[in-house]
Amino acid sequence: MRPLIAGNWKMHGTGPQLPEIAAIAARVRVTAPTADILICPPSTLITRAVQAAAGQIAIGGQNCASEVSGAFTGDVSAEMLKEAGAAWVIVGHSERRQHHGETDAMVGAKAKAVWRAGLLAIICIGETDAQRRAGNALTVCADQIAGSVPDGITAVGNAIGYEPLWAIGTGHTPSLEEIGHMHSHIRQCLVARWGSQGREVRILYGGSVNPTNARAVLAVPEVGGALVGGASLKATDFEAIINKIPAHV
Ligand code: PGA
């Protein structure tokens, strides 16, 4: 399976940051990495980001509404993101779940909307520090998959983003063993749900991935790529992560 290295810019970036995307695209053109490369900038930059990406890397949204259109002030639909040039949408990021009250059911409806629009989804899950300390990390993630990953759509090409909340933006990551354990657990959940198609879903690790730890993280079995926040904002850091994709992934 081709890995996916996805950058999540969060609420960072205006026009002056577009050259970072152009620089990554230029590098990808030269190095032709054996991975899909994606940057998810703020929605306001998507159209210009697609131009800067020059067909070398995909551009995605960070969230979408579940409806196509309507009286939903401030919301943007998956169809609108597609029209702007997005190929992917991140749904259920923990910052959306925490700060915007998104439930598993809401995330599932958003994932369906992404598929309805003909785009690919990164559906995010992950446990809190307290849940891990209580020994509940595996159950929490299994429940999030059960509640946020809808049935009825082909799994192929889509991704689950496993992001332990305590690892996001903190510089702390789980051990490689813990990552491997969780990723194989997620794989089992996907196969139990989707059968052999569950093997076609890329499981991304996210949470403080950087140029220093990327090689080891990406080499863990069942890690099908990375969802990168802070280290995706600068082309030099993001390129350094792309360069760490192991040959066997
Ligand atoms: P981080 O963020 O790489 O800055 O920890 C990851 C994410 O939240 O997607």
Summarize the structure.
With 249 residues, the protein is an alpha/beta fold.
Protein topology:
Elements: E1 4-8, H1 18-31, E2 36-40, H2 46-53, E3 58-61, H3 78-84, E4 88-91, H4 94-99, H5 104-116, E5 120-125, H6 129-133, H7 137-148, E6 159-162, H8 176-194, E7 202-206, H9 214-218, E8 225-228, H10 235-242
Parallel strand pairs: 1-2, 1-8, 2-3, 3-4, 4-5, 5-6, 6-7, 7-8
Helix pairs in contact: 1-2, 1-10, 5-7, 7-8
The chain binds 2-phosphoglycolic acid (PGA).
2-phosphoglycolic acid binds at residues 8, 163, 168-169, 206-209, 227-231.
Task: Give a verbal description of the structure.
By secondary structure, this protein is an alpha/beta fold. The chain has ten helices and eight strands. It has helices at 18-31, 46-53, 78-84, 94-99, 104-116, 129-133, 137-148, 176-194, 214-218, 235-242, and strands at residues 4-8, 36-40, 58-61, 88-91, 120-125, 159-162, 202-206, 225-228. The longest helix is centred in the last third of the chain and has 19 residues, at 176-194. It is globular. The termini are close together. The relative contact order is 0.16.
Q: What value does the Rg take, in angstroms?
A: 17 Å
User: What's the CATH superfamily, by name?
Assistant: Aldolase class I
Please indicate the percent range of residues in DSSP E strands (runs of 2 or more): 5-15%
Gap between N and C termini? 7 Å
Level of helix content? 25-40%
What features would you highlight for this structure?
249 residues; 39% helix; globular; binds 2-phosphoglycolic acid; TIM Barrel; alpha/beta; 8 strands; eight-stranded parallel beta barrel
